[in-house]
Amino acid sequence: MSQSRPLNRRHFLKGTTAAATVGFFTGTGPTSRAQSSPNERPVFATIGLRNQGWTITSKSTKFADFAAFADVDANVLEATQKKLKDRTGKAAVGYSDYRKVLERDDIDAVMIATPDHWHTKVSVEAMLAGKDVYCEKPLTLTIDEGKLIEKVVKKTGRVCQVGTMQRTENRQRFLQAIALIRDGRIGDIRKVTCGIGGATASPVIPTVEVPKGLDWNAWLGPAPKVPYRALPEMRTGYGGGVPLYTNCHYAWRNWYEYSGGQMNDWGAHHVDIATWALGATDTGPSKVTPVSYSLPIEYENGNPKVSDQYNSPTKFEIRVDMPGDIPLVITSQGDNGILFEGTKGRFFVNRGKIVGKPVEDLANNPLPEDAVEDVYGGPVSENHTANFIAAMESRELPISDVWSHNRMLETCHLANIAIRLGRELKWDPTKREVIGDAEANSFLGRESRNGFEIDM
Fold first, then answer.
1. Does 3.40.50.720 match the CATH number of domain 5-168+383-402?
2. pTM summary value
3. Which of 226, 238, 322, 341 could form a disulfide with 346 if both were Cys (CB 3.0 to 4.6 A apart)?
4. Which helix (H) or strand (E) holds 318?
């Protein structure tokens, strides 16, 4: 089990195709503008602009120029174009069809912040079009999609960074947490608990007219064709200004057709750090057990029996057997964050704090000066995009690479499958399949809707 970022990066370079490797260093194959001219800013495009799409774009204007945007909602597209012009003084061409972005030779990389069910299709097609990719988490909707993305990264030699920015940002609290563990400050790990929060159920959501400017068929894309649903009450706060109860907009996170509920939303962040801390990013769990859970609607054979209400779990406690027989608990209860417990102590970390006696002891017994950099594999980047651009230039793995992300995300996907089927799953991390359970294995992939298959 590798814990060294440089080792993983060398493995990546050795694993790419010969043609792609030649291109890295001689200019005869795929290159990036950032690599070929260090003094020239790379040219980016963002696909999927609402909420997180603008967040990662605005954080990246310091390092890159944005030449194009794509979104299936004309209102969001126009508003984001205006935001960019106001922020940078430069304009980005807007497209309703992301494929127009991929056709442009001047785009070095794309940032993808579509709903989850679009992530794999756009990422794969972007890499095949010669673009490096920064894709929001979770990278995939299914485990098989992760395997496909790994193949395409190897085939094309493109850099693919996942937006699990806790590996870089948040004042490096999560990096410090891993450094504490590696320095033996809590002894041997005995248990890790990831609190990722619960979700709410919904009332019955009626079919209504599609909002003006939204291409609903394109928004659904690879997912099954269903009517647009919404209630009049509006969401407030982050992601506000859209219906609170809907099968679109911000609430798509509550539907298995488009996401994986809290397990794929916050789980993709905290389970990632927990897996990294356990040194298990090259392997996976041996067993996933749904200790308790609550689904908002009835299920049959792993599938929801109704289509007019949220269908992802509202409450849950999942026990995951990790390497070394260390239990990883994923729960909807308690504070959002990660509790590490060892033979010598315990501490808690989230985006706002890192607390516990091992942390207090740092005042008199600090970590080695380079401990955090050793976790990161070098100097910690200014933000997650800066790390992505550094990887574009070096052609090394970024800090959030597809292999470690997929291994972690398999735990989240398996937890959802275990909840849907209501039973324990035994997992073979080498074959990457459920042992002795054909029905569970049928949930490792999905069929894309006709006309929205991945263009290979």
1. yes
2. 0.92
3. 341
4. strand 315-322
Domain residue spans of the chain: 5-168+383-402, 194-336+404-437
Q: For residue 307, give both structure tokens.
A: 């289509």
Question: pLDDT truncated to tens, each residue of the chain (456 aa)?
Answer: 333 333 343 333 333 333 333 232 222 233 334 434 445 899 999 999 999 999 999 999 999 999 999 999 999 999 999 999 999 999 999 999 999 999 999 999 999 999 999 999 999 999 999 999 999 999 999 999 999 999 999 999 999 999 999 999 999 999 999 999 999 999 999 999 999 999 999 999 999 999 999 999 999 999 999 999 999 999 999 999 999 999 999 999 999 999 999 999 999 999 999 999 999 999 989 999 999 999 999 999 999 999 999 999 999 999 999 999 999 999 999 999 999 999 999 999 999 999 999 999 999 999 999 999 999 999 998 899 999 999 999 999 999 999 999 999 999 999 999 999 999 999 999 999 999 999 999 999 999 999 999 988
Q: Are 119 and 111 in contact (CB under 8 A)?
A: no
Q: Return left, alpha or beta for 85; rule: phi > 0 is left, psi -120 to 50 is alpha, else beta.
A: alpha
d(CA 169, CA 270): 14
Residue 326, token pair as written in the block? 């260390």
In sequence order, what DSSP letters do the residues of 53-83 get, joined into one string?
Answer: HHHHHHHHTTT-EEEEEE-SBHHHHHHHHHH
